[in-house]
Specification:
By secondary structure, the chain is mostly helical. Strand 4 and strand 5 form a beta hairpin. Helix 1 packs across helix 8, helix 12 packs antiparallel against helix 13 and helix 14 crosses helix 16. The longest helix is centred in the first third of the chain and has 53 residues. 50% of the residues are buried.
Length: 583
């Protein structure tokens, strides 16, 4: 076989392999998107049925019975959780843990049971959102499909990411926000190979929920800047207040959670106690019951009074904290949007009353406040901006939304370094950043993960010999050495594709290799090296001496880092579980 034939066969096999991988990933993404879209529609139907079943009884009994409805729902959730789930409860925090700490392993059964618990909890008046259950549903579908097909490794995380993006996309008719939410909150970062299936999944879930079943966005009046010069500072101040409100919401939630953990009563009873407090609040202010989309819509359209909106800020925070802190089931995104809408609406009523000629109506500030409080609690400002844009389809307010979301994120982060999704993990000893446990990535060094025996190529060899070596070794890149055995560059499959024609197999490697090589040092942390790999969008780095940057000591690849990380994180998880079996 001549060099030209070898080259053609090599390129053909490579393209075929990539095509097959892409076809499989995207096909699975379509399946997950369609199934998740159907699951979200089914979930909404069951949630409506649950709400009607609980609150339909009020018309046939005393009005005071409404106080007991969240307690009854809480008792049912407590029974379900204690006798059937029987482990630590599932929400978005557990999805982050599964992808960052457990190699994508999660229990589809427990996810499904948690979804059922949320239908009872929210339907009976529990003050929580539906996004955590729907994300669990989508992620559970992805994890279940991975289990069924015996898929392992990074592809499991991709399938879970597909389910998560699909669920947000279908639930809120917001495919862009779904994708970005996965990047910012669930996985931390994405490679190109992961991004495409996650987008595909979100698109198909949106098609199913929106075009087939007619899921609609929140109806909002159109607003715009009245006086950009003056209102700019007002929206800046709104972002600051939103950041403080976000911190207050988180402190209330985790403070209540800690109080119920220390409460010496049976776990089955705790959600009922929390539900009773919610019922007492809801008797006087029923706006705190359930998800509260209708109340948010009223605030966005300027239909609520200043006094009511201001009061609902604190009542919703209390009701949400008692629902979730006591062991109820649901999510935090919609409560954050609710609190943000009430806070922004109150603020807008005040500034519009003081400066009616240079400010928009209160609904505009309610809209911006929604996104800002969500950004402050989730630490996902881009997802917050996009979900507001896709919910309203109104571009006129995008600039104040962007400003307030960023400012709120900064203020909230300065008060509490963790998001509402990672605080629980942090309290259990894990600090997650960009889908990795920071403490482990900072503790491990390059020398712990690098390979010392490196296959290299001489810069004087031709491309034909390089292709043969790639075929026999199945490696896609090699360090290049000069005649003195010093590192002179690195050559990869991409270099061959981009720089070599069919009749140029006699080119020397020195003509096509990359000379300006990014390198790693033995004493650098894996976190530092991983950031460098991501910044350069490459998969490997030669490891060189500090005293001589041309002296090759070894090589480190992204897979080397991931393998060592997975091993160390498993050791840490097992160690903490032995110390605290309830984890």
């Amino acid at each position: 076989m001549d060099d030209k034939t070898a080259f053609q066969k090599f390129k053909q096999n490579t393209i075929q392999w990539l095509h097959t991988e892409s076809l499989i990933s995207n096909s699975l993404a379509v399946i997950i998107g369609v199934l998740t879209g159907l699951a979200i529609v089914f979930y909404d139907t069951l949630l409506d049925f649950s709400h009607n079943s609980f609150f339909g009884t009020v018309s046939h009994t005393s009005r005071y019975f409404i106080i007991l409805l969240p307690a009854i729902g809480g008792l049912l959730v407590g029974i379900l959780a204690h006798f059937f789930i029987n482990t630590r409860r599932y929400d978005i925090e557990e999805i982050i843990e599964a992808t960052a700490l457990r190699g994508g392993k999660m229990s589809p059964r427990n996810a499904l049971l948690e979804v059922l618990a949320s239908i009872i909890s929210i339907g009976s008046g529990g003050s929580a959102g539906k996004e955590a259950p729907v994300v669990l549903a989508g992620s559970g579908i992805g994890a279940g499909l991975a289990n069924l097909l015996k898929i392992h490794g990074n592809r499991v995380k991709i399938l879970i990411g597909c389910g998560a993006s699909s669920s947000i996309a279908a639930a809120y008719n917001a495919p862009l926000a779904g994708v970005v939410f996965v990047v910012e909150v669930i996985l931390g970062e994405l490679e190109a190979s992961s991004f495409i299936p996650i987008v595909v999944s979100a698109v198909f879930a949106t098609i199913v929920s929106s075009l087939v079943f007619g899921v609609e966005n929140i109806g909002v009046a159109s607003y715009e800047f009245v006086n950009p010069l003056h209102e700019f500072m007002l929206y800046l101040l709104l972002g600051i207040i939103a950041g403080l409100t976000s911190a207050l919401l988180m402190r209330a939630l985790f403070g209540t959670h800690k109080a119920f953990d220390s409460l010496q009563i049976h776990p089955v009873i705790k959600p009922a106690v929390g539900g009773l407090f919610v019922g007492l609040i809801g008797y006087f202010y029923p706006q705190v019951f359930g998800v509260g989309y209708d109340v948010i819509t009223d605030a966005l359209n300027g239909n609520l009074t200043l006094q009511l909106m201001f009061l609902l800020i604190f009542l919703k925070i209390i009701a949400f904290s008692f629902t979730m802190g006591s062991g109820g089931s649901g999510g935090s995104i919609v409560p954050a949007l609710f609190v943000g809408a009430m806070m922004g609406g109150s603020y807008g009523s005040i500034v519009h009353g003081l400066f009616p000629d240079v400010t928009a109506e209160s609904g505009a500030y309610a809209l911006v406040g929604m996104g800002a409080v969500f950004a402050g609690t989730s630490r996902a400002p881009l997802a917050s901006i996009l979900i507001l844009f896709e919910l309203t389809r109104d571009y006129n307010m995008i600039l104040p939304i962007m400003l307030a979301c960023v400012v709120s994120n900064v203020i909230s982060s300065s008060i509490n370094s963790e998001s509402i999704f990672t605080e629980g993990l942090h309290r259990r000893g894990f600090t997650i950043r960009k889908g990795r446990e920071v403490d482990i990535m900072e503790a491990l060094l390059v020398k712990d993960a690098m390979k010392h025996n490196v296959q290299t190529v001489s810069e004087n060899k031709n491309v034909g010999a390089l292709i043969a070596l790639m075929q026999s070794s199945r490696h896609a890149g090699f360090p290049v050495l000069d005649s003195n055995g010093q590192l002179s560059g690195i050559v990869t499959l991409k270099d061959v594709r981009d720089k070599v024609g069919h009749d140029e197999l006699e080119k020397t490697i020195t003509e096509i290799c990359t000379k300006d090589v990014a390198v790693a040092y033995q004493d650098e942390t894996l976190n530092t090296v991983l950031k460098r790999l991501a910044a350069k969008d490459i998969g490997r780095l030669p490891v060189v001496s500090r005293s001589d940057s041309n002296k090759l000591l070894g090589i480190i690849t992204r897979s080397d880092i991931v393998k060592l990380y997975d091993k160390k994180i498993l050791d840490k998880v097992q160690r903490l579980q032995k110390m605290n079996p309830e984890q």
